[in-house]
Design goal:
The protein has 420 residues and is of the alpha/beta class. The chain is 51% helix and 12% strand.
Length: 420
């Protein structure tokens, strides 16, 4: 949702629909809106479908690809406004609260109490899943965003001795990869991907506290500071190592460039690991997962969750509780996160099958939480209202696709941060 103000009639529409019964409420099926359409993601959706079928419920897939979820949110808005919401939808962060204020979400507290979710979820996760004290969503994972994915064979061919940890090392490696005739940085020129790189740059240049002040609290002094100018300077250097065919490229195709040895590095969240896994690549051997330069000790998190929408049919309501319980089961949390590249949201899931990238993510999340470096992802809808986020993403995308100077970008960012 770009702005909840555009759907003020939403609550009334759904209340009316609930009163007369909606055409979309299925007696024994759940209709699930999501954007898991790439290899590793699609396997995860298939597993959830299988679990629901085992519980005696059908599954109606409502997959909407593209835009990092933007296209799916547009489709969701149209469905809810028309009074025909899906059973559940993939929504996260502050958007859950925005939908909750419209009065269209269904409580799954019964499933949460039965499954003791409050004991299994970290408070930072549980609070996001609740509206006015009641669970309205079930979390499936915790993603780490500030990763750099590296093909070690490309580094070797370019004469790079080790994976970069600092910005100086990063740009040295990028220059050598480019000189070797390969693409230094695999990237998809889409606004949300631009923002993904930008947030890791801000974190890596300014640190967790600066990131928190500028991209979470939207502190004007921080946004207009020399540190933010330096962040855009760094982003500008990154641009020079991205190939000319990047505009419009989907993220998983950029990941494939690293997998296939066409490119050396990619800034992307750990859902990229699902693509390496689907391609039968082994961490530490075929690819490296390292912190984005300068972000050691910090962790930008992104939580995927399914939010339940009010249904008038009693069987549909039972199906929602079954879906919520399935999502939070150790079995699904394990298989989902093994496929997706993320880590379980709930406690008590065995680490035995998780690889070194996942266990590093688990350990780093714990350490960053204790050290003050655990911060919500701005680029992936966990930090600020969607309208403000959209305005800031637009600034970053303009910077990435023009000759805008760093100072001009900072000035535009100050204005964008005030959009409500």
């Amino acid at each position: 949702m770009k702005s909840m103000q555009r759907v003020k009639a939403l609550a009334a529409a759904v209340s009316l629909a609930a009163a007369v019964g909606t055409a979309g409420a299925q007696q024994t099926s759940v209709e699930v809106l999501h954007w898991w359409t790439s290899g590793g993601e699609a396997k995860s959706a298939a597993e959830l479908k299988k679990m629901m079928q085992t519980r005696g419920f059908g599954w109606k897939d409502f997959a909407v690809a593209g835009g990092g979820g933007d296209a799916a949110m547009t489709a969701l808005k149209a469905r809810v406004v028309s009074g025909n919401p899906p059973t559940a939808a993939q929504i996260k962060g502050p958007s859950i609260q925005e939908w909750g204020r419209e009065g269209v979400l269904a409580s799954v507290d019964a499933a949460a109490k039965d499954g003791k979710w409050d004991d299994l979820l970290p408070p930072v996760v549980a609070n996001v899943m609740k509206f006015k004290g009641q669970y309205v969503a079930a979390p499936v994972n915790v993603h780490r965003v500030n990763w750099l994915w590296v093909n070690p064979d490309v580094l070797k061919k370019a004469g790079v001795a080790a994976a970069p940890q600092t910005w100086d090392q990063f740009f040295d490696a990028a220059a050598k990869i480019q000189k070797a005739g390969l693409i230094a940085i695999a990237h998809g020129g889409q606004p949300w991907q631009d923002a993904t790189v930008f947030e890791s740059v801000v974190l890596g240049v300014g640190g967790a506290e600066f990131y928190r002040k500028s991209l979470v609290q939207l502190d004007e002094a921080s946004i207009k500071s020399p540190t933010m100018v330096k962040a855009f300077d760094t982003l500008g250097r990154i641009k020079t190592y991205i190939d000319k065919d990047a505009p419009g490229r989907d993220w998983n195709l950029a990941t494939a460039m690293v997998i296939n040895g066409k490119a050396g590095m990619q800034f992307m969240g750990d859902w990229a690991k699902g693509e390496f896994t689907a391609a039968n690549k082994a961490p530490g051997k075929d690819y490296l997962c390292i912190n984005a330069p300068g972000t050691q000790g910090s962790f930008t998190f992104n939580i995927d969750s399914f939010v339940m929408f009010k249904q008038s049919d009693a069987n549909a309501q039972k199906a929602q509780l079954a879906l919520a319980s399935s999502i939070m089961s150790p079995e699904f949390q394990e298989v989902f996160n093994l496929n997706k590249g993320s880590i379980p949201a709930r406690a008590g899931v065995s680490r035995a099958k998780f690889d070194s990238c996942a266990t590093k993510s688990m350990d780093d999340m714990t350490a960053s939480n204790k050290g003050g470096g655990l911060v919500p992802s701005f680029a992936h809808g966990m930090a600020i209202p969607s309208s403000t986020q959209g305005a800031i993403v637009d600034v970053v995308a303009r910077f990435m696709n023009s000759n805008m100077t760093s100072q001009q970008a900072v000035d535009a960012l100050v204005k964008a941060s005030k959009v409500k």
